[in-house]
């Protein structure tokens, strides 16, 4: 599969089935994530790969209502970073951008390998920090729900989530997010 095929195949599925998680898989995903560009190669991102049931159960307690589908995750990857671990140039703070690129690489690698890696924002960061023993100075940027796609739609999904499962939600047109040469977008 080439990069374009992987990008087109990537989908934030919510219907998941359990799949074995190996350390080789985790090391593969982590290696690819480190290949993402970052300001002066500072690589501010930190990942906690949570796959043992007792730890997974603790993190699942931090999930928001509406993310019950994630209880079927085989692994949850906590993405952490802190501002001072990356470039700060005047008022430009790169840690979120650089961490996001690393996450994108990890998600594309997971897709290439036949997995679902679905980032979410619906969780209690304090409960996640407590569950994984994270230092206070690190920010939980996202959780990535990881597993294999199950063809049968999970009954926990809302109607909108069911529709998104069947068909990729619409994407913006070029004119809605991009310009040529000068800024052209209306607020």
From TrEMBL:
InterPro entries: Nitroreductase, Nitroreductase-like. Keywords: Flavoprotein, FMN, Oxidoreductase. SUPFAM superfamilies: FMN-dependent nitroreductase-like. The keyword Flavoprotein applies. Its cofactor is FMN. Gene3D superfamilies: NADH Oxidase. PANTHER family: NAD(P)H NITROREDUCTASE YDGI-RELATED, NITROREDUCTASE. This is Nitroreductase.
